[in-house]
Amino acid sequence: MSASHTPEPGTERTLRSSVRNPRRRQRQSDGDSLVATAPRRKRSKLGEDTFTPRANAEETDAGSAVMNGHPRGSTGGGVRKESTPMLDMELPVRGGKKTVKHRALKGDGATVLTQNQMYSVKLLPSTPRELRREGVEYRGVLGAGHHALAVTKTHAHVWDYSAHTTVSNARVFDLPFPAREGEALPFGALVISGASTDIGLLLLSATTGKIVFYESIDRAASLGLFQERNSGVEGTISGFSSGENVIDIVSADHAGFILTLSSGRIVQLTLRDAQGKARIFTQPLRPGDAGSGGIFGSIKGLWSGAWKKGVTAVRTRALDQRGQMQAIALTERCELQIWDLDWSGRHEYRSSMDFREVMVQELKSLESAEMQGCAESITALDFVIVDKPASVRGHEVATLGAEQPLSIWLLFKMGYTDAQDYVLAELSLAGDMVNIERTLKLESYHGGAITQKPSLLLPKPGHTALVIFDDALVLVATTEAGTSDDPNAQLHDASYIEPHSFEDAVYLRSGRDLALLGACVEDTRSAHASSIAFIKGAGLVRLSATDPSGDVERSRIPAKSKIEQAIFYGAMQDNILDFGQKGDYSYAAEEVEEAALNISDEILRSDTSFISTKITSIEAHLDYRARALGALVTHVRQNYPALSRSAMWQLLWDAEKVAAAQQMWKAFEEHKGAVSKVKRKATVLDELCGQLEEHHGLETLDETREDDLVRRFFVKGLSRIDYVLSHIRGLLEQLQQNQTETPEKIVRYVAEADDLWSKALDTAITFRTENAAAYNIAPELSQDGVLGDAADYSDLPEFWTSSRDMLKASRHIATLSREFAKHYFEQEDAHNFAQHINQITVCNPGLIQLCCLIYKERINWLSARADQKDQSEARTLRTNFEAERYDQFRALAGIGRANEGMQLAERYWDMQTLTELVVGESQYYVDELANSNLQEEQRTICVDLLRGITDRISKYFGKFGDDWANAFFDEAFSGSRAGLMLDEAQTHWKEPLTRYLRAEPARAKICWVNDVSAAKDFAHAGVVLAEAAAEQETRLWARKVELSMSKLALMAAQEGSRQPAADARAVAARPERELKLVGVQEKLYRHLRSEVMGALDREAEMEIAMQRFGLKSKKSAALQQLLETEIERVLDSQALSIEELVDVLTLMDSSVYSTEAETPSMNIDGSEFLLALQALDAVAPIMEQRRFETLLQLIWKRCYVHDDWVSLMTTQAKKVRPDADVKSLLIQTAPWRTFYALHKSQPSLLSDDSNIRVLSPAECLGAACKPADLAYRFSEADLLDPILHDNKIQDELLAGFVADRKLNEWMRDCEDDAKRSVAEYLDDTANLREKERELEDSEEKREEWQPGKRNGKANGNGHLNGVNGVAQDEDVAMA
């Protein structure tokens, strides 16, 4: 038998007669001579060993290696072996009738709780139902002939525990001394009575010391005398006090039993007298004077009052002398007491030994310094005797009185109550020497407060010990691992670390009132160590272990096997065992991860012995695999270190595939039923599986069915589920080119393909979304099953749902399906397959949704890759996705699914597509209502649908906010129906419309209309239109109109406003300032236009303009180019910014005229710099201070460098001309004319309220010479640098004038002279006006005198008329 399979004890086949005859003479083993044999019977040539493997050398040796404290052959007889069927977790397959019938091998009927290459645990079915009930406690022991005894408080149950079914005819006897509530359970034992094969029953009350012995339960039961008092022998433990309790009973074979009392006393119980008659006799085993000879003679072990020593365990063994027995007692303080017993009931105290100090020192040497204190607190718990065979002991001759060496395994605990460790130690005792062979600290179990004392078993053949706790069974290898063949040991003799002995624990599941009530070794003749455990609430459990010492690699159970046990035994059935990882021992994360991935892959491919391929129900089979994958991830996460992200995703993908397959199978069943319920017809999945078989092959199954290929795919081919799904695209393309198939079949295939694709991927994505947390993936990172952030895809392998083939398929399946639906819908016989066409159209929105998810997942995954090729592909796919999504959503309207298209656009927040769909649907219904042939009923429907669209639009404003408003109103106002849409919006969506129009300055004009006509907010209308005119309008005349309308709106707002007058004027100030700027540019335009009036075309205009205004700027190429560009814009009536306007006014040439009569109309010569200052002052309040200062300095700098100061100053210095001539030249300079005009016509610019001031030449140095000064205008270096260069040249020229020519003093004098000229002009003007007033007064007086003269003439008074002429002369003089 292979090492990987654990055979159960008693697996040999038996003859039918041996099974049916419970009294068949059992084969004797060495030491069975004490049991009388029955008469020999004729034996069949077929024996119990006929069908068993040959025993190993250890089995064929005389005696067995271990007796576990019982004499050899005490139970006698062989044990019937049981066959172990192959584990099949699926439902049994109903096989067909066979021509030749063979007798099937009988199984043991046990439920496999767990099984691996090291051991197996099975729940035996024979336990009576009464003992399996919840809360029932009992003491259980085994007896000869596969009999088990269970003693409850009131009854004793005896049954054959090897039965294959639940025993319904167990012998149940009332106890003669039932235990009361709260008292300890009675003890019991099954006894073989001498030469007879009858089984006797011993019962012992733990609290009263009463004893009853029945020689034969069969005979007593058959006679009906068991209930009578005289049917058994009764007795009482001698000296039993009221405060004592029996705590243990151990068989001493023919020497009776050894009882351990709570007081510490040890009592021998014999059941027969010297003549062999039944009799109860008890006597205490007391220590006495030790003999001076023998190997224990030197040990001082005498004491009185043995009950004071705290006896914790007693074991017996048979000595080599025939008929001699030995009882050995162990105290909690690691002391041994030894008595010799014989068949007659006599006993002799032999010796005692205290090995506590030796044990403490040994443990201290093994522990770290900080843990050595725990070694002082050791407490012995139990021990077993290792009775080595004669070959091990050297074949010494056993003689009467000779001492036999003692070898034991000791169980003790160390540490404190809240943190206790358990240790096994192998001790050899010879003479006065105690040798500690080795110690094994349990790593798989740590106990705190326990309800019962742990016990130790060492079943035959002794390679594995069993430690029984109340909630766990711990298996420990007692034989050393065979390392002689280990290459590591051969290569590293000095440094090689011997592998740890095998150890593992089997825990009971908590929370189900389960507990280990006890355990007994099971005598077998196989190489497996077998024990039977009695479990409260479950029954009998057999634990069978192989020898783990033969292979170094088997020193532990691999992580893969551990996880498989937890999945297929723990999570997949109602198991009483707990498979959670406990104890100190742990597996490396890499091993756990590899194991989990391998298990998951094997489940996916059904390539594990735990999953049968003999399937009766594919649905149940897939459900089993799905549950197994769920149990896998749950167990791994709860009990092992965290797996890597990529591993968890791989586990999730495997589970997704199985979940998808479950829905695909249901779809396949529906497709089969829909086609024909009588004859099986091919479906689209048959075609796809055929392609998979053709290109990759599918493993065969042990069955023959009409849908065998499909079934093989679901059982063995799920690892290629993405291949099957992605080839739906190719199948549809073939159908598109197919000219032979009927339309009905083609449309049916398309509908089936869509259904298969959508159900599989919908299920996979839904499963991923719902179970992300179970796979340690934060659910908030996933949106519809797709990770939202590309960074979350880092270091993850390619997703199976969004591979390149899956993406291509998703793009084409939806499109091809719509094309099929449209094409066949228009055919005459479309009514024959209208149902399938409807299925295609209904399914199409879901296909598009899947396409979008696959796109997103693929794009995000590629974006997380480091390869530039992947990054480039991601960018390309992102662009394609936007276009593909738009086309797919819009195309749904063509198959009558516009509503679903809107829902998809809502889902992806695609406002542009949503707007077009809504507007398109709305327009469709409007056009339908305009149809005069439309019936009234249809008209009503259209009106209702149109009203529904209007309501939907209203809801979108609340749901999507500005995103929807922007897209919807952009679309509405972009066409020819903008006016109608504005009216409709003002009616239905007034508030969203207002928010939309006010959100962007570009919408200012429509906003002004809405504010004035609907919102009645004239203040906002005026402000927004002023801002739009100043910042957006490029046409000069339009800017002037908009500013004027803005001013008008603000004036209207002021009429009914409660706003303070000052605030109202501040609001209205901006359009007024901007209008001043417009006025300056209009003057400039008229000035330029007057000069180029006669030009034939634009080129001629520019040539004339530059000859007239650009001569002085020729020396500065960049500035001249700037001037030319901006003059052209002025002539085009384009609105200039303040900077551009300053450039034109300060760089253009200016002419000087001798008289005003010579000055042309609309001429601004001499006022250029003044206009620049006026424009700057107008916009100063809304400008950044730094920009303002730069422009102010630039205006004055260009003014100061406009003239040739060198010649003027040289002329004055040489006195070559009179001062009058020099002054006439100074008057012609730009600064003098600017000062003159400034003080004459615009003195307000120099007031305290104005931002304009006169700067000296020195204050203008450095203006517009730094990149920061002009970078906001010229962002490109090839434009900025030349302009800065020319500005710096001007700056150097001005600096020279300041330093060498004392330009600062000249400009002060120049300004003073200009002021005097202005003053003279003002005086002359005042005098002239005075004379004009005097003349007007004289004219008035003359008009008054003329009537007086006429009166004089009438009176004849010639004197009054100035006879001497004086008055006349005065009048003339005044005139």
Automatic annotation (TrEMBL):
Transmembrane segments: none
GO cellular component, one term: nuclear pore outer ring
GO MF annotation, one: structural constituent of nuclear pore
Residues covered by the Nucleoporin Nup133/Nup155-like C-terminal domain: 651-1308
Protein location: Nucleus envelope
Domain Nucleoporin Nup133/Nup155-like N-terminal intervals: 114-542
Bias (Low complexity): 1356-1366
Protein's GO biological process: poly(A)+ mRNA export from nucleus; protein import into nucleus; transcription-dependent tethering of RNA polymerase II gene DNA at nuclear periphery
Residue span of region Disordered: 1-83, 1329-1375
Annotated keywords: mRNA transport, Nucleus, Protein transport, Translocation, Transport
Basic and acidic residues bias locations: 1329-1347
Xref: Pfam families: Nucleoporin_C (PF03177), Nucleoporin_N (PF08801)
Matching PANTHER family: NUCLEAR PORE COMPLEX PROTEIN NUP133
Protein family per UniProt: Belongs to the nucleoporin Nup133 family.
Name recorded for this polypeptide: Uncharacterized protein
Provenance organism: Oleoguttula mirabilis
